[in-house]
Amino acid sequence: MRAFGGPADLEIKPRNVEFGRGVNYERWWCGGDPVVTAFFNALSLTFPQGESFFVNSVRRYLPELSEPLRGQVEEFAQQEAYHSREHMAFNRQVAAGGYETKEIDALIRKDIQVSKDAGPEVELAVTAALEHFTGIFAHAWLSDPRHFKDFPEDLRRLWQWHSIEEIEHKGVAFDTFLFATRDLSPFKRWLFRTMVMGKVTFEFWKERFRDIGLLLKQDGLDNATSWRRLVGYLVARPGLFRQVLGPYLAWYAPGFHPWRHDDRALAAQAEASLSLVLAR
């Protein structure tokens, strides 16, 4: 393992692919389940603005970086641009299904501005923390087919493709953070990133549950039954929270690095099953 850049043979490949163009999805597109649909809709609504924030927070340091990290930042940015485009297309489908999403978009914009106002190093630390979230979510989603089993085919492919690329670039923001904080002592750097992660964890789930509630409210389902169903989905079957708990807690170890767990084989296996066709 090198100081920056992850495994020496790491490849970050931006795949220009499109999903679901011209397809009309049901309002409760996830097997008719409004609660699981709301969970994934709420996540998707964060991606266009969130990924733009991620890219800007990392690219700010691009002139100072050397290879291979410099090239990895560029590839990360391109992957995130494609992710934003595809989730924007999907989010339009969510709106076409009858959901009002402008309020959620505005709330996400305000959430992101709070991190922007905290300064460049905090922005970068927030990005690294959230990229850890997306990396461990991606691993769980690709490892357990129950997560996507009730998805329409195009949406299953969309989320698998996104997960593959999240695994590939999971160390880029973290390595950029290591570079940006290179003058801090190891203890101060560890304290910085763990404090940021604690705050990010609380705010991320508070905001996502807020957004899920706003979506459920539009269906007249913002009630105890729906929330119990969501808790069961996240904790028990398939249990995303349970599946990512160990990898999440690894962040708090002093010697943590995202690539201490090399799951490229999982991503490669998923890609082989997708037969992706690149867009022109």
Question: Main traits of this protein?
Answer:
280 residues, mainly alpha, UCP07580, single chain, Putative metal-dependent hydrolase, hydrolase activity, hydrolase, globular
Radius of gyration: 18 Å
Largest sheet: number of strands, sense, barrel closure: none
- Output the number of helix runs: 10
**How many angstroms separate the termini?**
36 Å
**Shape, principal axes of CA atoms:** globular
> How much beta, percentage-wise?
under 5%
Q: Structurally, how many domains make up the residues?
A: 1
Q: Count the strands?
A: 0
Order of helices and strands: HHHHHHHHHH
Structural class: mainly alpha
What level of helicity do the residues show? 55-70%
Which regions have little confidence, pLDDT < 50, spanning 5+ residues?
A: none
Whole-number average pLDDT?
95
InterPro entries: UCP07580 (IPR016516)
Keywords: Hydrolase
Protein name: Putative metal-dependent hydrolase
Organism: Caulobacter vibrioides OR37
How would you describe the overall organization of this protein?
With 280 residues, the chain is mainly α. It has one domain. Helix content is 66%, strand content 0%. It contains 10 helices and no strands. Helix 4 crosses helix 9. The longest helix is centred in the last third of the chain and has 33 residues. The two termini are 36 Å apart. It comes from Caulobacter vibrioides OR37. This is Putative metal-dependent hydrolase. Pfam families: Metal_hydrol (PF10118). GO terms for molecular function: hydrolase activity.
